[in-house]
From TrEMBL:
Protein name per Swiss-Prot or TrEMBL: EAL domain-containing protein
Domain EAL residues, every copy: 24-279
Part of the intact protein present: 654 to 935 of 935
Coiled coil start-end: none
Length: 282
């Protein structure tokens, strides 16, 4: 109930920002301040699980804003505004740095086999200094590059320029991993896959939701899994909510699973405990 109400508030709130530009300006101002003071954003972490072993293989960092008045805001209420206003450059840099800082902390505590994934906004790929910034962060935090992954949306890759292509090549040369988020929603020819040095396809939640009842979505998912296999890419499913979906995917050859079935995104402090309960869940 309470959750539902909170959800409606977000809904009302985001409708308000569209219709009420004063409200939007206030939020934009808040966003600047929140970033400057640097303590109102927080990352939650969602485990990724290998169905063959039950092991957690990594986690995705997902940003939230602890707004002093509105409470914990999900990314959809402020990421679009951050993108519109250019704040995303600094915010996105914070996300990568904080993800790596947290990863290093876990690494030092013995969690050495996890790969941490951070989401990258399309605008960030156009930043001149993105590659050098990522290199700097890796050096500064002492995270092995192979343990960092950046998730790019398929749309970004479809509407690519020579520049985005070369930036992705340069990022790969740092030794990090590249994943295509929300894969399958881009309505593109798949030709671009041969040009882009990607490591992982992440099947969009929209195909997963009714995978056990909708034969079209099951077929699309099968095709993505086969495609990944023949291109020697990893494949992971997002938004997996039931054991049925998880088993279906694993039987079809998609063994990497992320979703509420194993865990919602959680605070860093809860992560270790969660890892041990996941092992028994599969
Ligand atoms: P995404 O990268 O595709 O992330 C997956 C979203 O699905 C997350 O929502 C996650 O909480 C949610 N999710 C995961 N498993 C399940 C499930 O089993 N059921 C359901 N119903 N939902 C599930 P969230 O955290 O609200 O993030 C939404 C989007 O906001 C992300 O989609 C991503 O595009 C963007 N985002 C989040 N963090 C960042 C960030 O640090 N930077 C940028 N640029 N974008 C971000
Ligand atoms: Mg993502
Ligand atoms: Mg996704
Ligand atoms: Mg998605």
């Amino acid at each position: 109930r309470a959750k539902e109400r909170a959800g409606n508030q977000y809904q009302m709130y985001s409708n308000d920002i569209e219709s009420d530009s004063l409200e939007k300006i206030k939020l934009e101002n808040d966003l600047f301040k929140a970033l400057k003071h640097g303590n109102e954003f927080v990352l939650h972490y969602q485990p990724k699980v290998d169905m063959r072993t039950g092991n957690v293989i990594g986690m995705e960092s997902l940003i939230r804003w602890e707004h002093p008045i509105y409470g914990l805001l999900p990314p959809k209420t402020f990421i679009p505004l951050a993108e519109e206003t250019g704040i995303i450059a600094a915010l996105g840099e914070w996300v990568i740095r904080e993800s790596c800082r947290q990863m290093k902390e876990w690494y030092d505590e013995g969690m050495t086999n996890f790969v941490i994934s951070a989401n990258l906004s399309p605008q960030q790929l156009n930043q001149k200094n993105l590659v050098s910034t990522v290199a700097e962060i890796l050096e500064e935090t002492e995270v092995p590059p192979a343990l960092l992954e950046l998730e790019l949306t398929e749309n970004l890759i479809i509407h690519n320029t020579e520049r985005t292509l070369s930036t992705i090549h340069e990022l790969k040369q740092l030794g990090i991993n590249i994943s295509i988020d929300d894969f399958g929603t881009g309505y593109s020819s798949l030709g671009y896959l041969k040009d882009f040095p990607v490591d992982t396809l992440k099947i969009d939640k929209s195909f997963i939701d009714d995978i056990t009842t909708n034969s079209s979505n099951a077929a699309i998912t099968d095709t993505i899994i086969t495609l990944a296999k023949s291109l020697q890419l990893d494949v992971i499913a997002e938004g997996v909510e039931t054991q049925e979906q998880a088993h279906h995917l694993s039987e079809k050859g998609c063994h990497l699973i992320q979703g509420f079935y194993f865990s919602p995104p959680i605070e860093a402090s809860e992560f270790k405990k969660q890892v041990s309960t996941i092992q028994t869940k599969r």
